[in-house]
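Justification of computing resources. Each target in the renewal requires a structure prediction run like the one illustrated here; the chain below, 256 residues long, is used simply to show the kind of job we budget for.
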Amino acid sequence: MRDSLSPFVIEQETSLVDAFRAIDGNKSGFVIVADDDGHVLGTLTDGDIRRAIIAGVDLSASVSASKAYRADFIALSVDQGIDDAIDIFKQGAIDFIPVLDGNGRLANVLQKKQLYSLLLQCENASLGDDFSSVDGSLIDFEVFNRPWGIYKTTVLQDKFQSKILQVKPKSQLSLQYHNYREEYWTVESGMGVAQVGESRFALVPGSSVVIPRGCKHRLINTSETEYLVVSEVQIGDYFGEDDIVRIEDDYGRAGD
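Resulting structure tokens:
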């Protein structure tokens, strides 16, 4: 077993309180329960421990005696593929999968966030790879509010990123340009106008607009009642908010 898996493995005679400490230490919400020979017996989550406490189990009790761990866990063989992991994670309630060798010992652990991060980065992977360095937080993008509405980043990579923009009725983004990226807009719902250079284009669901690097542009929602929802793909060398050069702005941000 590789060293990176050690924080995720406890023995069956470990106390519940020590199991809780292990879960707190690995910051992933679970551990794998193994016997003295390293054979995997089940999985234990922080939720399983909380339910055991509510049921009256003493925290000093061993994991085995408490019967808190799940012996009916779902696992994969190291010889299976990433597609098998995707099918399991589609079930929704599963956030991690133990990967076992031919003798039932732990060969790997794959977390859903790690897998989705790999897929979004277009990385090829196998269940035998070391996933400890995969940053699962890449998929945890916040929703940001702006005076004109909200946006959420959906993919962020070195050379491209994508966002969903929701523009409030009768609102518009600043007239702006970018030095380091080009943008591609596709309208998902609503209606509006795209200004690109000196040209203006009517927007309806399905409309697509290309904004070259350095070209001034603006997105305008012309509806009185409906949000304008746009999928935006950016391709370039840098995607920081400080690459927004505002020429005109309804909210006093021109020149920022």
